[in-house]
Amino acid sequence: MAGTDPAAAWAGEPEQGAPGEEGVPGPGDRAARRASTPGRASARDTARVALRVGLPTLAGGVVVRRKQGVALAARIDADRHAVELLNELRRRYGPGPLHLRLAGRNVALPLSAEDAQRVLDETPEPFTPAARLKQDALGHFQPHGVLISTGQERDERRAFNEDVLETGRHLHHLAPQFVRTVREEADGLLAEAEAEAQGTGRLDWDTFGAAWWRTVRRVVLGDAARDDTTLTDRLGRLRGFGNWSALVPTRATAGPRERFQQALRAHLDRAEPDSLAEALARTPAKPGVDPAGQVPHWLFAFDAAGIAAARTLALLATHPAQEQQVRNELAIPDLTRPQLLPYTRACVMESVRLWPTTPFLLRESTRETRWGEGTLPEGTAFLVYAPYFHRDGSAPYGDRFVPEIWLDGTAHTGPELVPFSAGPGVCPGEDLVLLVTSTLVAALMERHDFRLHSPDGLRTDQPLPYTLNHFALRFSAAARS
Asked: Per-residue confidence at 34, pLDDT binned at 50, 70, 90?
């Protein structure tokens, strides 16, 4: 559930003064001294960033993916060109945040891992996740979501999300039911694929996505919501308005939003046992939390998780060595019970490193911030472009599928890998997402071999593309003898 942000809490009174008090340097002050001075992009380079970094992401859809935009971005491998441009601009302007003026606004692109880490570590102050652009986009379907909340409301909503999602716990207490649900839907997906192809299973994104949403509705809302496609279709339309937030104000979608919320509340009021809805109903909430208002973001974030799961399957179908490692991990006594499946989880993490489902991690400064010998003004939008930090060419594994980096400590030696964000804004549902996605991948591969027919380019003997169109994924599945 990437993108949701936690509350930062202080416990106890420091004996020698608090960070930020007069004469006592705070963490932000120390980071500012270490940071490089911002470079001011020329008008020409600003236009290049807008066209090669911003436009493909907008065309692909920042809130809900657009098929045509994603297909075009993949055709031109848009993220590769964006990373190449940012590497060029770093050489020209230096490693400090690149300061641009876009549409009359101050925008900064961190170009060093240290500066990106500072922005993420110093969330929510002075770098709030509740940026105006994000409020406009997400307000269409989650106006009370923690991601666009501030102050005490944010703290309380974050704490509530952590309690329900059991942040930091690899296996949620409802994991046994979730695993059963995932495996049941995986079996149904394979049966559906085989029926359509008369014994030789054909699996495309539409079939996969439909099964994924059935799984998500059961996990979040219970079995009675399994086939309530109207609910998630309504959410999809509201997310679509979020893509056009600059043109469609939230007041214009008040009617559709209320209808969606009414349908959602009907499921939540039922609080079906062994669902997140039940956990939500049992978790104490302070008056301003709005428990039901947190659920749209869970559904929203699970969409990205489904994309990651499908891409993981594509990687394993084209990388025999890693596929065998997963199969070795599946040779355990009882897969119907919750398992950590560390290698399979690492494969999912690696798919999100290679193709971040949230390309931009957006923060907005609540005050003027110092960077080396310079400053950036209050209200600056900081865009941490994840593909750049994941695949800027500095790591030998950058363009290869190497799940081992998530197991041997390599991925944790620096701040540049942020598949689920980082710092106080790290995704509180990371463990739950990895449980569901890794279980699905394992259930599909347990008794079937998969072959990827489309798209091309996922080969072990060449660098992986920077942009992958999940809508174009086409597999065949054959039962193992």
From this structure: low
